[in-house]
Amino acid sequence: MKKLLIFIACCQSSILFGQVSAESELFISLKAQDSTFFERGFNQCDLEYLESVVADDLRFYHDQSGVQDRKVFFENTKKYICGSSDQKPIRKVEESSLVVYPLYQNGNLYGAIQHGEHHFYIRENGKEDVYTSSAKFTHVWLLENEVWKLSEVLSYDHRN
User: For residue 121, which of 131, 108, 111 has the smallest C-alpha distance?
Assistant: First the structure.
């Protein structure tokens, strides 16, 4: 609960600074981070990479499968995302939906909130990807030793 309150406070304080421009270094950096995170971690199931960019105290809030910590997140990723090569879930971001809000403490950037919409597909060898659903997401990325780590996830408004 404490982390959720901190998350909400961060969201509210980011309003003071506002979202950054799509041409800003922060936006471009987090857009690339999002792309790499999902391409390698979700689409290609590079779990070693995924483990290196997920915070130790990850909190993942999903509107259909509940709250997950880091351990449960990885169990579910292995089971549902990376469990079958016959029918592989694929994630694609709606690039025009991305927005980024910087998080500062004492004038120093320590993280950012990234919000957008993404679409999910099932991929089978030799076939076109088949659309399954769309959802909104809000991610809190924290800078840890100059590496972006995914710390908090809200995944909601899933629809077909």
Answer: 131
CA distance 138 to 73: 16
Query: What long-range pairs does 125-130 form, CB within 8 A, spacing at least 24?
Result: 125/85, 125/86, 129/90
Of the candidates 71, 73, 5, 85, the residue with the CA atom closest to the CA atom of residue 37? 73
Sign of CA dihedral 2, 158, 128, 124: positive
pTM above 0.90, yes or no: no
At 2, the pLDDT band (50, 70, 90 cuts) reads low
Handedness of CA 116, 74, 45, 37 (dihedral sign): positive
Query: CB under 8 Å to 37, separation ≥6 — which residues?
Result: 50, 53, 150
